[in-house]
Amino acid sequence: MQNRAIIENVTPNIEGGKYYIKRTPNETIEITAHIFGDGHDEVNARILYKSAKQKKWQTSHLYHIANDEWIGNIAFEYEGMYSFTIEAWIDHALDWLIGIRKKILANVDVKVELKIGKEHLSKIMKLAGAKDKVLIKSYIHKIDDVNEYEVAIKAMNDIVLERIIKQYQLAEFSTKHDVEQLIKVENKKATFSTWYEFFTRSASKEIGKHGTFKDCEKVLPFVADLGFDVLYFPPIHPIGNNFRKGKNNSTTAKPGEPGSPWAIGSPDGGHKAINKELGTLADFKMLVSKAKSLNIDIAMDIAFQASQDHPYVKEHPEWFKWRPDGTVQYAENPPKKYQDVLPFNFESNDWKGLWNELLSVVMYWIEQGVTIFRVDNPHTKPFVFWEWLIKEVNKKYNNIFFLSEAFTRPKIMAKLAKIGFTQSYSYFTWRVTKSEIIGYMNELTQSELREYFRPNFWPNTPDILPFHLHNKGYAASAMRFVLAATLSSNYGMYGPVFDLLETESFNGKEEYNNSEKYEIRNWDWTTMTPMRKLIKLMNAIRNKYEAFQTTYNIEFVDNDNPMLLSFIKHANDKSKSLFIVINLDDNFKQSGHTKFDAEKFAKKAGIVKVNDLLNGESYDWKTDWNYVELDPQILPAHIFEIL
Amino acid sequence: MQNRAIIENVTPNIEGGKYYIKRTPNETIEITAHIFGDGHDEVNARILYKSAKQKKWQTSHLYHIANDEWIGNIAFEYEGMYSFTIEAWIDHALDWLIGIRKKILANVDVKVELKIGKEHLSKIMKLAGAKDKVLIKSYIHKIDDVNEYEVAIKAMNDIVLERIIKQYQLAEFSTKHDVEQLIKVENKKATFSTWYEFFTRSASKEIGKHGTFKDCEKVLPFVADLGFDVLYFPPIHPIGNNFRKGKNNSTTAKPGEPGSPWAIGSPDGGHKAINKELGTLADFKMLVSKAKSLNIDIAMDIAFQASQDHPYVKEHPEWFKWRPDGTVQYAENPPKKYQDVLPFNFESNDWKGLWNELLSVVMYWIEQGVTIFRVDNPHTKPFVFWEWLIKEVNKKYNNIFFLSEAFTRPKIMAKLAKIGFTQSYSYFTWRVTKSEIIGYMNELTQSELREYFRPNFWPNTPDILPFHLHNKGYAASAMRFVLAATLSSNYGMYGPVFDLLETESFNGKEEYNNSEKYEIRNWDWTTMTPMRKLIKLMNAIRNKYEAFQTTYNIEFVDNDNPMLLSFIKHANDKSKSLFIVINLDDNFKQSGHTKFDAEKFAKKAGIVKVNDLLNGESYDWKTDWNYVELDPQILPAHIFEIL
Hints:
Helix content of chain A is about 30%, strand content about 25%. By secondary structure, chain A is an alpha/beta fold. Chain A has an 8-stranded parallel sheet. In chain A, strands 2, 4, 5, 8, 9 and 10 form a 6-stranded mixed sheet that branches. A 6-stranded antiparallel sheet of chain A has the order 23-24-25-30-27-28, with helices on one face. In chain A, α1 runs antiparallel to α2 and α6 packs parallel to α7. Chains A and B meet through α1, α2, α10 and α11 of A and α1, α2, α10 and α11 of B.
């Protein structure tokens, strides 16, 4: 117990290191800690890190800021699991150097101190490289030469000596922090992805006809042309017949109505089966493969629930709850009943059997080529289950992504991200005003959420037509789209409904009228409307400009109009950072002055040319404040590169 | 893994439960946690707690506030070690009751739900007391009676049924939080103590004569009369001869100068010996015993360092650092040298031997009757050492108190408190302005420090005559005294210097001129000066009014004068809470209006009589704002009881 350094309050620390922090290659991890020792001796500290495959720690610098608070950074070039911790110690060599310099300055005789220094240098010699060994020897020589005291004390102020003493850390009697925080480095797509959702059954060009995977293949070039790289389908499994829902969520389906795809399971099969109206497994695999050739990943829906005629109900009655009258327990929100959906009973005595079966569903589809899962309502199944399932998948496969579709309370959404979901739906859908947007972005990027919660911004979903889009046109949708695509590196839309500007609500609720959830729709998959042109252009900009490929590089900027949102998206190469202004008013033209600091873009203060990537127009801007004006009918935003 | 509840972010949590939180009997612990489950079922949770001697947990309520945040309280009647954790579960019985009530309200048939309720009630029956068993049976009877459906559904709204379901917690498939946070409940004196410090060698009435323990005995009634219950002496051990310090810290002592008591050790002995000029061990034990009879604990100084002629230097050279020229390493702050003091080398290969010897010093004095130690500069010895030492002492003895004399950086002071020091010197000595005082009090009482850091407020010490007391008189000292004695339940003063208003500094530094640290002084131990009268009265008030016996019950109150500090000290019986106003200006009379809310003192809004405990004057105060005026030459503060 000769160790004297104390390490406290290390961040990031996700529940004591229990959950990993998430990064993609070269994304920085900022590490802070409180570090101090007893007495007045110099303390030193460093970051220790390694990949799961390595045994030996590598080191990285930590710097003392103030008040015993230290800071450092690490980043990883390659995907994989890593961990870091912190090591601290009393740095006697550095302490000696600082002390002898002070004494020399005060004209104190330091003959004995020089000899002490020799002891430190001899130890450091063992760690040093060949060139530095020569240098160290020369210092020892000067110390040893009793006739050259003046030379020796002059050498004590050498910057080279200081460099050597700081570089080779003896770290004697060091303290190692007792938490090893895990880090998962995943494929860049975990942080930068562009999602499009449509219902496979609406892919046919023929009105009223049930679409097929073959029809979907024909839509792929359209999706690719718009610039999306994830295509997400609602469930493709057989749909229950009992208690099937009809048009607009009616509790009785008319003959021929297709039902909700989330009412999974019929005599034809369950979660591993395919709705035969869509085609065969072979068709599906062909679709997945053709999508991949267009750089599109097919994301599959995972909805762990069953219709009343799912084969599980008969084969595994123990996985459901049964009522005293012998009927099966359906989903409820008293007094509302959802008889088309049976939740699994995770408190079942056969919870193990249930867990294994559900894992096998995910594994099955991975084996068919699926790498991305959009998980339906994960917050209605136990957290311990998801934690286990994702861990099991990760044991066998890398870069399988799970998007958490949980629109629920903040701590629950955060927990799902902690236990392993790759990305998460977010509150963006309902963040409308400037202060709401800035507050939410700060929460996502400046709080602990930054370490593990990767938001995915959606202006709409099949379940949500938010009030602010009701009965609106191009301007509102364009604004919400540009917000999603610029604020978040992961975003998505439930299309053609969205890009064709369908905004009619069902009875004034936040739901779509004539929702595709309950019926087959037909869509124009070809016309390049203004909205689609905007989407295509925006996605091209996102792909070209690194600044849009992470969410955590945002800096909001002052302006003088509450309806205008100004922000910088920083790039590592500052000259490629972008300046964005969005009009939050979808009714009226808004203008105002926005602050601008050229130096943040590696430009000299003065006048620079800014070029709008959306409409190609250029302006001369000065460091300070600049006038902007946006007409929502024409242009929802400026996205300026600084020339 | 059928458990579905999640428990996160439990507070208090001192570094993952590693360090205990500190309380005295009946001092409340407020516990908070984030708790939630999957799905929409009702979640329930409770505090589990037990003493170190118990195996079985006892339970206490937790309440949901908002946003999945829960809160509860526990307190312990008896001293000892305890721990707490939290348990949470899906409360199916409560969920059922809430559900069936909603369905009944919506006129849904609940015959099946009644049968489900019977299942829950049958389980609860097993936990219930005899009387409640009868009640539960009556509900089951109503459910079973198929002819009385209306009676049964009416009974579902009974408050008694709700009470039963909430009272007997099935806690099936519960989650237990993985941290068991330790709690140490100590004697009330840990939180409420009143310290007086003097130099034993200055206790003689004869001018220039070295005081003795016998002389100290004669001073005891004076100290008791002023109302102090801890009497702290600087070290009483033999003082080094080599490099002895002279008057005013001169590096050479003249013949006959006594030296600094902190330069411990001479050929006469070390840390277990007594300076023979003070008397014998028997004299010391007699003094301790006579003090106890006056309800005064003698606090002993523990300064783990040695003079150059301490026996350890020869007997255990391995416990010191040696320089290449064969001399021993003394304390330094380059280029300053402190040759009269040798620090121990805790990095010694024989650190074990050193630790054991130092522990034996503490144990030795405990065996002589000492129960309180004021530890000199604990931050210059390793934290791991103190943690171990205090733990070892606690294995054998209860209620041995350690006061940490660390005036250093905030994280270091906090760490010493965490690892076991009972009380800590504080920054109060330098907190002067209203905002400094309020800010510091909030830090001490509202941050995590409240759990383990018990501040002790000192207006002065032998090492510190703060600038704001330089060359001041009664008014300044009285104000600083009243601040210490009202803001903090633990306070102390270095007397007679303080109570006799000696405020001459040495060369304008924050040090006393002619400091007792280096010479023998003589004091008037009898005259009841105005300052001493104030001290006696204030200590009597502190002893009488519970509101002054804890530090954590403070609430600052608005007033309209930055030189006036207003606050409430809350008592459990609100009518005994006190209202304090202190004039922070020691030069001028200050007046203003201070806010006052009679309801906080369990009085009806309107006019109440307030009675100043310091001068006996009464005023009629109204709820709202009231005029106050304080002349520092006459009265430093109002301490109002509300009649």
